[in-house]
Amino acid sequence: MSRQLFTFNGGVHPEGHKAESNATPIRPMPLLPRYVVPLRQHIGAPARPLVQAGDAVLGGQMIGAPEGYVSTAAHAPTSGRVVAVAPHAVPHPSGLFDLCVVIEADGEDRSIDFQPLDWRKLDPSALRNRIREMGLAGLGGAVFPSYIKLNPSGQTLHTLILNGAECEPWITCDDRLMRERAAEIVLGIEVMAHTLGVKTILIGIEDNKPEALAAMGAAAPSGMEVVAVPTGYPGGGGKQLTYTLTGVETPTGGRSTDAGIQVFNVGTAYSLYRAVYLGEPLLSRVVTVTGHVANPGNFEARIGTPMTDLLAAAGGALDGADGEIVGGPMMGFDLMDQAAPVTKSVNCLIVKDPVRFPPRPTTLPCIRCGACARACPADLQPFEMYWFSRAKDFGKAQSYNLFDCIECGCCAYVCPSHIPLVDFFRFAKSEIWEREQEKHGADQARQRHEFKEFRLEREKREKAEKFARAAEKNKEAAATTTTDATADPDAEKKKAILQAALDRAKKAKEAVTPRNTDNLPPRVEKEIAEIEARRAQAEAKTESGEG
Amino acid sequence: MNGSPFALLANNSVTAVMFKVMAALIPGIIAHAWFFGPGIWVSLLLCTVFAIGVEALILLMRGLPLKPFLSDGSVLVTAWLLALSLPTLAPWWLYAVGIIFAVLVAKQFYGGLGQNLFNPAMVGYAALIISFPVYMTQWPAPVGLADHSPTLLEAFDLVFAGQGSISPDAFTSATVLDTWKTQVKLGKPVEDILAQPMFGWGGGKGQEFVALMYLLGGLLMLSSRLITWHVPVAFLAGLAITAGGLHLLEPARHAGVLFHLLSGGAMLGAFFIATDPVTAASTPLGKLIYAGLAGFLTAIIRGFGGYPDGVAFAVLIANVCVPFIDAYTQPRVFGHRKAGK
Amino acid sequence: MISAILVMAGIGLALGAILGWASVRYRVEDDPLVEKIDAILPQTQCGQCGFPGCKPYAEAIAKGEADINKCPPGGADGVKRLAELLGVEAKPLGEGLEPKPKAIAVIDENTCIGCTLCVQACPVDAIIGAAKQMHTIIADQCTGCELCLPPCPVDCISMEVVKEDVANWKWRYPVHMMKREA
After folding, report:
1. Which chain A residues have a beta carbon less than 8 Å from that of B3?
2. Whether the Cβ atoms of residue A72 and residue A147 lie closer than 8 Å to each other
3. Which positions 20-49 of C are in contact with A (Cβ < 8 Å)?
4. Number of domains in chain A
5. ipTM of predicted assembly, 2 dp
């Protein structure tokens, strides 16, 4: 059964370095004394903490609730006590701290009761809600909340692609997972296919993983097609794999679902299996620890495992270690603080050494050789984007389709001048985002200011009108008393009609003019409600204090 | 702080690229020395020394570090291309002036490596042919056709001491392109012109073989992916189609395709000069347009212009058009709608 | 001679006609200048420029009555964009006008007496609360203009600098180019 494959332009072939870590089975980790669970592990709004310092928690208990639509839950990895809900080091390129729940394990590792789901009977929307509460997010790296991706939301999907390509060098966690737990992955895929209502299921695996291909091929029932795709970076990028398997280009600014295709990582399928069949939230994931360590391999690490413990499990860094990379060498980032924990997005930890990861040589000027353009899988012209990003001419950079860049790093990999191209693109992108936000904020401020001025003006006018009317009345009252005899009954009637019309107009105006607290986004509305609640509380306190 | 990627392609640097280009020139240089005498070694050496000197001086004056910029090798490529475009055995100052125009004016005045609009070697060549046309048309005759072929020592003597000791008539002649042009103008029949020994079998005795060696070097660069096929193919096609068309229209005035491809700077231009990434168009379609234009202009200048060879001016004119060509030939980006849909 | 003059005059007339037609045919309907200037201003409505708001300042710039370097929240970048728009030289911010890090006002809810003075002062209605109720600032809508600080009789409003966190963190400009030798 051979399928026509499509070849995307560009791409590179860096050394694989898979053998270092893919020879041994996935190893479990011992129960640790301390776990750090960040509340922002996924794309979207961070989870809202449900626990406070001092609370006792059980394994699998929800400690962070999803907040808003694009969000998902966080769970306690084991039983113990919450010692802090505070900023803590997290795996992020900035090295900044973020809100985390720090849990001290009690060593008993008790869990809540896990309730398996009867997914065939369950209403798809209820199933998605359960998955949201179980904190599932894409484990391939983008950590997009899975329940959203499992919602066809009006679109007709025909194809489900499982991404087992694992094209980044050094990383082997999906490889090992597919070799060892193919049957469970397949069960997870069935749930996905059922929820999405797709007809075609393709499992794309790079042909440098013959064992995983064999294992998945053996486990896959008819109707699931395991496809060997050519090895090459970034062949496992969502857009690239979709193109390779179907010839469909994900439209710019859109998602593959626009073309009826949904893509999941195989690791996500496995965690879906655990969620549905075992009723277990996303509590752990497989992480590759490799590079300059004593005992490289793959580890089943609970979410929240500090990197120090993960490194220790791999025998620790060897002499001459020179920092760590979170993720792969092409798209990962430097680990700033070893206290940072494993999150849902951490698929690999590479310990660097100066031989295999030498410092970047001196950067020379761009010679426009075009190597980057030939390597770019998005068919961009990176050297042009670099030129404008460097000059901070962001409008021009955008006109060269900066936002189609997937930051795969192929351009910087092949650049003979050793220019950190992707750094420039990330810089330009975040500057543009900030400017757009500022612009949006300024527009809102302008509207609100203009409305306030309009309101003040109206209030002034109304006041003046009221005064004028009052004056009129006084005068009329005076007039009626004197000219009562000659009073025209018609005039009185006319005046009444006029007054009624004025009142009507005023009422209508009041009805259409919003108050300054109308039309707020729901988040702000909620904020206001919370503030009111706080106020009520404070008032009650002062009252009780007084009374 | 540096972000990803942390992996870099091994043995990849500007220096490596430039040295590979120079290696690809070597077959042509050896052929040149074989057919036209050892003078080429002198001009290569002189241009190299001058170029490094000028580059180092400017880098010092600009306060830039010497090591990375001198070792990038780009100035050596410029020096070699200029040396290969100039007649050998010319006085030393001719090379010096050429290098000053190439390295100082065309390259460093524009900001150095990667910033120049025009091909430095071709700017040097153009400045010289405008300023010193007489020296630029006195090429050593192929070995065997000249009364006397200078030895290496004599070559040094000629270059530095002037041409007092040996009469230039003894070893120089006009190039075949030049000869063709003047003799056609005088009304000499084409058969008689081509029957002269200096015309060889294709593009001039000796020169045709040198051109083939440049072709070989170019193919080596193609196979090692230093260059893409677009520029050389479009350049040679532009030249061949235009020259062929002219030849069909007026065979008594315009030479044939093979003669155009194998004479003058056609092969050197197609593979080594027009392909200079800094000054060439960068998109695939843009490269075709740019190089096709250069090839077309080469044929036009050769056929109708006042100068015997047109490669330098053609490349420079094409260089001017590059920003425009690039702007209008941006390839379709992945995920963007196909044109016309 | 006459014919030459006629030809030249004819060419001149023809070109003039084409230009005249083109200027009518391709006339660009522009936003009024004030709107364009106002679009660049940061809309903090803080009045540091000496005008009662961004729009009045924009109007003053358009009339040529105010300099372009009077807006500290817009910073050097804002001055540059104004200069580009108006076709003048950019210049540093005016005397005594320093850009401050972005901050938002925070009301100490325990001290607030609910006098509504700040509510009236806020140019963008970002403070909510009625008389004798504590007031609160909607952080998202606060422009950091500080206009609410002076009217507060109990000094319960303070400015808090917006801290960099994981969500608003930006990639820095890469430091990579060769340094000039000292």
Report:
1. 93, 333-334, 420, 422-423, 426
2. yes
3. 38, 41-45
4. 2
5. 0.90
